[in-house]
Known about the structure:
Elements: H1 3-18, H2 39-44, H3 57-63, E1 71-77, H4 82-92, H5 96-113, E2 121-124, H6 129-135, H7 139-151, E3 160-162, H8 174-181, E4 185-187, E5 197-205, H9 209-218, E6 225-234
Parallel strand pairs: 1-6, 2-5, 5-6
Antiparallel strand pairs: 3-4
Helix pairs in contact: 4-5, 5-7
Amino acid sequence: xxxxxxxxxxxxxxxxxxxxxxxxxxxxxxxxxxxxxxxxxxxxxxxxxxxxxxxxxxxxxxxxxxxxxxxxxxxxxxxxxxxxxxxxxxxxxxxxxxxxxxxxxxxxxxxxxxxxxxxxxxxxxxxxxxxxxxxxxxxxxxxxxxxxxxxxxxxxxxxxxxxxxxxxxxxxxxxxxxxxxxxxxxxxxxxxxxxxxxxxxxxxxxxxxxxxxxxxxxxxxxxxxxxxxxxxxxx
Length: 235
Ligand SMILES: [Zn+2]
Protein backbone atom coordinates (compact mmCIF):
# COMPACT_ATOMS: atom_id res chain seq x y z
CA UNK A 1 0.00 0.00 0.00
CA UNK A 2 1.31 3.47 -0.91
CA UNK A 3 1.80 5.92 1.97
CA UNK A 4 -1.13 8.04 0.71
CA UNK A 5 -3.43 4.98 0.64
CA UNK A 6 -2.30 4.01 4.14
CA UNK A 7 -3.15 7.48 5.42
CA UNK A 8 -6.52 7.36 3.67
CA UNK A 9 -7.29 3.96 5.21
CA UNK A 10 -6.17 5.21 8.60
CA UNK A 11 -8.58 8.15 8.49
CA UNK A 12 -11.38 5.92 7.21
CA UNK A 13 -10.84 3.56 10.16
CA UNK A 14 -10.91 6.47 12.61
CA UNK A 15 -14.08 7.88 11.03
CA UNK A 16 -15.74 4.46 11.09
CA UNK A 17 -15.21 4.31 14.83
CA UNK A 18 -17.16 7.54 15.32
CA UNK A 19 -19.61 7.08 12.43
CA UNK A 20 -19.90 3.48 11.23
CA UNK A 21 -20.14 3.15 7.45
CA UNK A 22 -22.67 0.32 7.67
CA UNK A 23 -26.07 0.37 9.35
CA UNK A 24 -25.97 -0.74 12.99
CA UNK A 25 -29.43 -2.22 12.56
CA UNK A 26 -29.03 -4.35 9.43
CA UNK A 27 -25.41 -4.03 8.30
CA UNK A 28 -26.12 -2.54 4.85
CA UNK A 29 -23.78 0.26 3.66
CA UNK A 30 -24.98 3.73 4.64
CA UNK A 31 -25.49 6.59 2.19
CA UNK A 32 -23.89 9.99 2.85
CA UNK A 33 -27.10 11.33 4.38
CA UNK A 34 -27.54 8.40 6.77
CA UNK A 35 -25.78 8.28 10.12
CA UNK A 36 -25.43 5.01 12.04
CA UNK A 37 -28.85 3.72 10.88
CA UNK A 38 -30.31 3.27 7.42
CA UNK A 39 -33.70 4.72 6.56
CA UNK A 40 -35.29 1.22 6.37
CA UNK A 41 -34.27 0.43 9.95
CA UNK A 42 -35.38 3.85 11.17
CA UNK A 43 -38.92 3.36 9.87
CA UNK A 44 -39.06 -0.12 11.42
CA UNK A 45 -38.57 1.32 14.91
CA UNK A 46 -42.13 1.32 16.20
CA UNK A 47 -43.28 4.43 18.04
CA UNK A 48 -45.70 4.23 20.97
CA UNK A 49 -47.30 7.58 20.10
CA UNK A 50 -47.35 8.52 23.79
CA UNK A 51 -46.01 12.01 23.07
CA UNK A 52 -49.34 12.74 21.35
CA UNK A 53 -51.57 11.18 24.01
CA UNK A 54 -51.83 12.17 27.65
CA UNK A 55 -52.76 10.69 30.02
CA UNK A 56 -50.90 7.66 28.73
CA UNK A 57 -49.40 4.45 30.06
CA UNK A 58 -46.46 6.28 31.66
CA UNK A 59 -48.37 9.08 33.35
CA UNK A 60 -50.84 6.43 34.61
CA UNK A 61 -48.01 4.18 35.84
CA UNK A 62 -46.72 6.86 38.19
CA UNK A 63 -50.09 8.41 38.98
CA UNK A 64 -50.63 6.50 42.24
CA UNK A 65 -46.94 6.19 43.17
CA UNK A 66 -45.36 9.54 42.45
CA UNK A 67 -47.33 11.67 39.98
CA UNK A 68 -45.51 13.32 37.10
CA UNK A 69 -46.50 16.27 34.92
CA UNK A 70 -45.73 14.74 31.50
CA UNK A 71 -44.47 11.33 30.47
CA UNK A 72 -43.43 9.63 27.26
CA UNK A 73 -41.76 6.32 26.34
CA UNK A 74 -41.00 6.91 22.68
CA UNK A 75 -40.33 3.51 21.06
CA UNK A 76 -41.74 0.05 21.53
CA UNK A 77 -39.05 -2.28 22.89
CA UNK A 78 -39.83 -5.64 21.38
CA UNK A 79 -37.76 -8.79 22.07
CA UNK A 80 -35.70 -9.63 19.00
CA UNK A 81 -36.48 -6.28 17.38
CA UNK A 82 -34.01 -3.79 15.91
CA UNK A 83 -34.36 -1.49 18.89
CA UNK A 84 -33.34 -4.24 21.32
CA UNK A 85 -30.16 -4.77 19.29
CA UNK A 86 -29.49 -1.03 19.12
CA UNK A 87 -29.92 -0.57 22.85
CA UNK A 88 -27.61 -3.53 23.42
CA UNK A 89 -25.02 -1.83 21.17
CA UNK A 90 -25.57 1.42 23.04
CA UNK A 91 -25.15 -0.11 26.49
CA UNK A 92 -22.62 -2.87 26.04
CA UNK A 93 -20.81 -2.51 22.74
CA UNK A 94 -19.43 1.02 22.90
CA UNK A 95 -21.87 2.85 20.65
CA UNK A 96 -22.82 6.05 22.53
CA UNK A 97 -23.74 7.73 19.22
CA UNK A 98 -26.86 5.51 19.00
CA UNK A 99 -28.18 7.16 22.14
CA UNK A 100 -27.62 10.67 20.80
CA UNK A 101 -29.14 9.76 17.41
CA UNK A 102 -32.31 8.15 18.79
CA UNK A 103 -32.67 10.92 21.38
CA UNK A 104 -32.46 13.49 18.58
CA UNK A 105 -35.05 11.72 16.41
CA UNK A 106 -37.51 11.38 19.31
CA UNK A 107 -36.97 15.00 20.33
CA UNK A 108 -37.85 16.28 16.82
CA UNK A 109 -41.28 14.61 17.05
CA UNK A 110 -41.77 15.64 20.67
CA UNK A 111 -40.93 19.25 19.89
CA UNK A 112 -44.05 19.42 17.71
CA UNK A 113 -46.26 18.00 20.47
CA UNK A 114 -44.94 20.66 22.90
CA UNK A 115 -45.37 18.37 25.94
CA UNK A 116 -41.91 19.23 27.22
CA UNK A 117 -42.27 22.98 26.82
CA UNK A 118 -41.44 24.71 30.07
CA UNK A 119 -38.88 22.14 31.26
CA UNK A 120 -35.90 23.82 32.96
CA UNK A 121 -33.42 20.95 33.19
CA UNK A 122 -32.93 17.55 31.59
CA UNK A 123 -31.50 15.00 34.03
CA UNK A 124 -30.35 11.56 32.85
CA UNK A 125 -30.75 8.64 35.27
CA UNK A 126 -27.19 8.54 36.65
CA UNK A 127 -24.88 5.54 36.74
CA UNK A 128 -22.82 4.70 39.78
CA UNK A 129 -19.29 6.16 39.30
CA UNK A 130 -17.85 2.64 39.27
CA UNK A 131 -20.18 1.56 36.46
CA UNK A 132 -19.52 4.79 34.59
CA UNK A 133 -15.82 4.04 34.75
CA UNK A 134 -16.19 0.56 33.25
CA UNK A 135 -18.71 1.59 30.54
CA UNK A 136 -16.97 4.87 29.73
CA UNK A 137 -20.24 6.81 29.33
CA UNK A 138 -23.78 6.91 30.65
CA UNK A 139 -26.19 5.67 27.95
CA UNK A 140 -29.09 7.69 29.41
CA UNK A 141 -26.93 10.81 29.27
CA UNK A 142 -26.31 10.17 25.56
CA UNK A 143 -30.08 9.98 24.94
CA UNK A 144 -30.50 13.13 27.04
CA UNK A 145 -27.84 14.90 24.94
CA UNK A 146 -29.94 14.31 21.82
CA UNK A 147 -33.03 15.69 23.57
CA UNK A 148 -31.11 18.65 24.95
CA UNK A 149 -29.75 19.65 21.53
CA UNK A 150 -33.15 19.61 19.80
CA UNK A 151 -35.35 20.91 22.61
CA UNK A 152 -32.71 23.51 23.61
CA UNK A 153 -33.07 22.64 27.30
CA UNK A 154 -29.88 22.42 29.39
CA UNK A 155 -28.62 19.02 30.48
CA UNK A 156 -27.73 18.75 34.16
CA UNK A 157 -25.62 15.95 35.63
CA UNK A 158 -24.74 17.74 38.90
CA UNK A 159 -28.02 17.35 40.80
CA UNK A 160 -28.91 13.65 40.86
CA UNK A 161 -26.40 10.98 41.89
CA UNK A 162 -26.39 7.23 42.10
CA UNK A 163 -25.33 6.30 45.61
CA UNK A 164 -25.97 2.59 45.81
CA UNK A 165 -23.97 0.18 43.69
CA UNK A 166 -26.07 -2.80 42.62
CA UNK A 167 -23.55 -5.32 41.32
CA UNK A 168 -25.92 -7.53 39.37
CA UNK A 169 -29.58 -7.22 38.48
CA UNK A 170 -30.01 -10.90 37.66
CA UNK A 171 -28.99 -12.71 40.86
CA UNK A 172 -30.53 -10.86 43.73
CA UNK A 173 -32.55 -12.28 46.56
CA UNK A 174 -35.42 -10.60 48.36
CA UNK A 175 -33.37 -8.44 50.75
CA UNK A 176 -31.20 -7.13 47.93
CA UNK A 177 -34.31 -6.50 45.90
CA UNK A 178 -35.59 -4.33 48.74
CA UNK A 179 -32.31 -2.41 48.93
CA UNK A 180 -32.34 -2.02 45.17
CA UNK A 181 -35.57 -0.07 45.22
CA UNK A 182 -34.71 2.14 48.21
CA UNK A 183 -32.28 5.02 48.50
CA UNK A 184 -30.57 4.32 45.23
CA UNK A 185 -30.11 7.98 44.47
CA UNK A 186 -29.36 11.25 46.21
CA UNK A 187 -29.67 14.92 45.23
CA UNK A 188 -27.39 17.89 45.65
CA UNK A 189 -28.99 21.24 44.95
CA UNK A 190 -28.80 24.95 45.65
CA UNK A 191 -31.62 27.54 45.97
CA UNK A 192 -31.62 28.21 42.20
CA UNK A 193 -32.79 24.62 41.63
CA UNK A 194 -35.94 25.08 43.70
CA UNK A 195 -39.29 25.40 41.93
CA UNK A 196 -37.92 24.10 38.61
CA UNK A 197 -39.38 21.57 36.21
CA UNK A 198 -37.13 18.55 35.65
CA UNK A 199 -37.23 16.00 32.85
CA UNK A 200 -35.74 12.67 33.94
CA UNK A 201 -34.39 10.57 31.06
CA UNK A 202 -33.83 6.81 30.98
CA UNK A 203 -33.21 4.18 28.28
CA UNK A 204 -35.87 1.47 28.71
CA UNK A 205 -38.88 1.56 31.00
CA UNK A 206 -39.72 -1.85 32.45
CA UNK A 207 -41.23 -1.78 35.96
CA UNK A 208 -40.51 1.91 36.55
CA UNK A 209 -38.88 1.20 39.94
CA UNK A 210 -35.62 2.99 39.10
CA UNK A 211 -37.46 6.00 37.71
CA UNK A 212 -39.72 6.10 40.73
CA UNK A 213 -36.64 6.36 42.99
CA UNK A 214 -35.33 9.21 40.82
CA UNK A 215 -38.68 11.03 40.78
CA UNK A 216 -38.98 10.80 44.57
CA UNK A 217 -35.43 12.04 45.03
CA UNK A 218 -35.90 15.04 42.70
CA UNK A 219 -39.15 15.86 44.49
CA UNK A 220 -37.19 16.44 47.71
CA UNK A 221 -36.08 19.70 46.05
CA UNK A 222 -38.65 22.29 47.24
CA UNK A 223 -41.24 23.10 44.57
CA UNK A 224 -39.72 20.72 42.01
CA UNK A 225 -41.93 19.42 39.18
CA UNK A 226 -41.01 16.22 37.38
CA UNK A 227 -41.66 14.81 33.92
CA UNK A 228 -40.25 11.61 32.43
CA UNK A 229 -38.86 10.51 29.07
CA UNK A 230 -37.64 7.04 28.22
CA UNK A 231 -36.38 6.00 24.83
CA UNK A 232 -38.44 2.82 24.93
CA UNK A 233 -41.16 0.92 26.71
CA UNK A 234 -40.65 -2.82 27.23
CA UNK A 235 -43.69 -4.49 25.65
ZN1 LIG B 1 -30.48 -0.77 8.48
